[in-house]
């Protein structure tokens, strides 16, 4: 009798360890997270196995084509469910991330901190040198590395060319949120702290570890990463797993959680260069207006996103174990610049028709 009871307990534990219970109290197999190797092979998963609405796929693709999309990928648990290329773009072609690449800079900064090379609570001038701005020294000394990560440096955002004469005072650091290119100084912070060119450090600590391709274009107006769509998806998969790639924690989970949580109380929809959905209000680039509601109402509330000009996107949705990547030209050529646009809500309406 004791042996039978023990066997029953062991069987119950075994079943519970490989299953979850869904909302209908049915047992659902737990699928492992998949991480692609550095080769071109990548596991796939069918839409039918997920119970998705296949009749809504073509309307989604038609929308993507109409909105000047070059590539589109959906991952679930790391596996490719959809992968499409349009308008002559191919899987081996590279494209600019634009401001979506800010998240790469934030992650690399966090890696440098976990290695003890810098502290984001230190003054930026500890790494950039005194008088790196055109501000009074007392005001410059208020700017920390964290302020650069959160868009709260207090530097006037009217001029996006990052040269010293343009880095002028408009508010005390931490008192004003303004989206601008001064985040680029973080690449100099990491370079100074690590003693290596930023791209060298980035390649060693992030790019090569997760098998990305691509390269940086550094400029005084824009610092932009360019890669294939699958490489953008790899970074999204790292983000879905809170900085962990397979069995290696590339960026510590504490820093990553901070990156994808409200970083200041002025714009709660912004973390460390990540955009956050599901908050009560948000701000957008080039404005000081505070808008009520969620950043992308049609998207899941727990989504965080890397967003770049011309609608470059990495959407990460932990509740659905999902990563979605879109690259291409601006969905609306009349409004190509801003990182945040109405395109997101329209796209998510189409995505929801497929996945729900």
TrEMBL record:
UniProt cross-references to PROSITE patterns, sorted A to Z: PROKAR_LIPOPROTEIN
The protein, known as: Serine hydrolase domain-containing protein
Signal peptide residue numbers: 1-21
E.C. no: 3.-.-.-
Organism this protein belongs to: Flavobacterium myungsuense
GO molecular function: hydrolase activity
Any Pfam family hit: Beta-lactamase
Entry keywords, A to Z: Hydrolase, Signal
